[in-house]
UniProtKB/TrEMBL annotation:
Pathway: Cofactor biosynthesis; coenzyme A biosynthesis; CoA from (R)-pantothenate: step 3/5; Cofactor biosynthesis; coenzyme A biosynthesis; CoA from (R)-pantothenate: step 2/5
Cofactor (UniProt): Mg(2+); FMN
Protein name in the entry: Coenzyme A biosynthesis bifunctional protein CoaBC
Part of the full-length chain shown: 190 to 411 of 411
Domain DNA/pantothenate metabolism flavoprotein C-terminal residues, every copy: 6-219
Region (Phosphopantothenate--cysteine ligase): 11-222
MF annotations from Gene Ontology: FMN binding; metal ion binding; phosphopantothenate--cysteine ligase activity; phosphopantothenoylcysteine decarboxylase activity
One GO CC term on file: phosphopantothenoylcysteine decarboxylase complex
Enzyme Commission identifier(s): 4.1.1.36, 6.3.2.5
Keyword list, A-Z: Decarboxylase, Flavoprotein, FMN, Ligase, Lyase, Magnesium, Metal-binding, Multifunctional enzyme
Family of the protein in this entry: In the C-terminal section; belongs to the PPC synthetase family.
Transit peptide as UniProt keyword: no
Residues the entry annotates as binding CTP: 93-95, 99, 109, 125-128, 143, 157, 161
Reaction catalysis annotation: (R)-4'-phosphopantothenate + L-cysteine + CTP = N-[(R)-4-phosphopantothenoyl]-L-cysteine + CMP + diphosphate + H(+); N-[(R)-4-phosphopantothenoyl]-L-cysteine + H(+) = (R)-4'-phosphopantetheine + CO2
Length: 222
């Protein structure tokens, strides 16, 4: 049994990709499997937390004890997150939210022609930054996947999105990251004196990394 370091805490975790409709049969998305977010939900539950997992489309089964809310688009994910936020102590943004969506989803299947086709895209809301900007925001944890200058970009995101902690990983290594069972990351956070601190979490299963992230977060909670 795990130490109950998150007993009495409510968590909201986003996971997986979002799908942004082009027309009724097509969408824009990415290769996120949802594995890291589901591992976080499983770990937090084992540590005693009550977890709401807001998930984009994945092939994963819901960890036992987790309340799962399925969504498709970024707009739906933001709405489900807002609804789940009251009483939330820790928010973890682990979803690979599509940065853009088609400006208008066609209501009928688009027909092909020989001509080029231009899709107009409009930016999606940043769910994590929206949560972190709210008055009385929960403790906010983000993820950053980078191919280079991992720590400096991730620290920039921590500052810009006003996060408490960010887990950064190098996705240039094909053995780690998207759709793999293992990962390795640098954990970066703001301490009680508002100084930026960091530690390496060496290669381990996503579940082990989730436990390591919450062990650190639990020490920083108010
Ligand atoms: O800026 P970038 O997309 O790299 O930031 C990644 C972090 O922000 C992740 O924690 C991700 O879940 C979150 N995010 C979000 N909504 C977006 C884009 C990113 O919550 N629209």
């Amino acid at each position: 049994a795990q130490p109950q370091i998150l007993a009495g805490k409510q968590l909201v975790i986003t996971a997986g990709p979002t799908q942004e409709a082009i027309d009724p049969v097509r969408y824009l998305s990415n290769h996120s499997s949802g594995k890291m977010g589901f591992a976080l939900a499983q770990a937090a539950t084992a540590l005693g937390a009550q977890v709401t997992l807001v998930s984009g489309p994945t092939r994963l089964t819901t960890p036992v004890g987790v309340k799962r809310i399925d969504v498709t688009s970024a707009a739906e994910m933001l709405e489900a997150v807002q609804a789940a936020l009251p009483g939330c102590d820790i928010f973890v943004g682990c979803a690979a939210v599509a940065d853009y969506r088609p400006a208008q989803a066609a209501s009928a299947k688009m027909k092909k022609s020989g001509a080029t086709l231009t899709l107009e895209l409009t930016p999606n809301p940043d769910i994590l930054a929206t949560v972190a900007a709210q008055p009385n925001a929960p403790f906010c944890i983000g993820f950053a996947a980078e191919t280079h200058d991992v720590v400096s970009y991730a620290t920039g995101k921590l500052e810009r999105k006003k996060l408490n902690m960010i887990a950064a990983n190098d996705v240039s290594d094909p053995a780690l990251g998207f759709n793999t069972d293992d990962n390795a990351m640098t954990l970066i956070w703001r301490d009680a004196q508002n100084e930026i601190q960091q530690t390496e979490l060496p290669r381990a299963s996503k579940l082990e990394l989730a436990f390591a992230i919450f062990a650190r977060a639990a020490q920083l909670l108010p």
